[in-house]
């Protein structure tokens, strides 16, 4: 006797569709920086410059997390924004790593500004002197 298992189809909400579109926009934005290579992780993507992580992009069910490192004085300033928080790792948070919670309504121009500042800072710190 076979037991029949009823499998329900998952419904995709309009918010999830919009969040997926925003994730793809962020991927394109991060790929456009010179010298950046994308590498898959188990739960997201890393963007590296000369094998050093510059950005980490993770998709959660209701938000997208974009993690990056900024100079400490800039990170302190940026942490006042409503969608930005310190990195979950205390050790990384002390060095200027932040996590930006990107939702569908988060302005893309604000994210672009943060990403550009991070890229400039990381490239300056990586470049040989």
Description:
Helix content is 38%, strand content 26%. The chain contains four helices and six strands. It has helices spanning 14-31, 72-78, 90-94, 108-126, and strands spanning 37-40, 44-49, 52-59, 64-69, 84-86, 97-102. Strand 3 (52-59) and strand 4 form a beta hairpin. The radius of gyration is 17 Å and the shape is elongated. The mean pLDDT is 87.
Helix and strand arrangement:
Elements: H1 14-31, E1 37-40, E2 44-49, E3 52-59, E4 64-69, H2 72-78, E5 84-86, H3 90-94, E6 97-102, H4 108-126
Antiparallel strand pairs: 1-2, 2-3, 3-4, 4-6, 5-6
In short:
The protein is an alpha+beta fold and 129 residues long. It has helices at residues 14-31, 72-78, 90-94, 108-126, and strands spanning 37-40, 44-49, 52-59, 64-69, 84-86, 97-102.
Short descriptors:
single chain, 129 residues, alpha+beta, Aspartate Aminotransferase, domain 1, six-stranded antiparallel β-sheet, 4 helices, 6 strands, elongated
Describe the largest sheet.
6 strands, antiparallel
CATH architecture: Alpha-Beta Complex
CATH class type: Alpha Beta
Q: Output the number of helix runs.
A: 4
Shape: elongated
Assembly status:
single chain
């Amino acid at each position: 006797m076979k037991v029949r298992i009823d499998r329900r189809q998952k419904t995709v909400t309009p918010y999830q569709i919009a969040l997926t579109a925003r994730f793809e926009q962020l991927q394109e934005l991060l790929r456009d920086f010179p010298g950046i290579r994308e590498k898959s992780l188990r739960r997201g993507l890393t963007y590296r410059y000369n094998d050093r992580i510059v950005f980490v992009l993770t998709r959660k069910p209701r938000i997208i997390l974009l993690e990056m490192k900024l100079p400490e004085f800039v990170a302190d300033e940026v942490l006042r924004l409503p969608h930005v928080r310190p990195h979950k790792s205390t050790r990384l948070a002390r060095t200027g790593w932040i996590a930006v919670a990107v939702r569908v309504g988060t302005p893309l121009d604000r994210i672009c500004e943060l990403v550009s500042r991070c890229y400039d800072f990381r490239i300056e710190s990586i470049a040989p002197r």
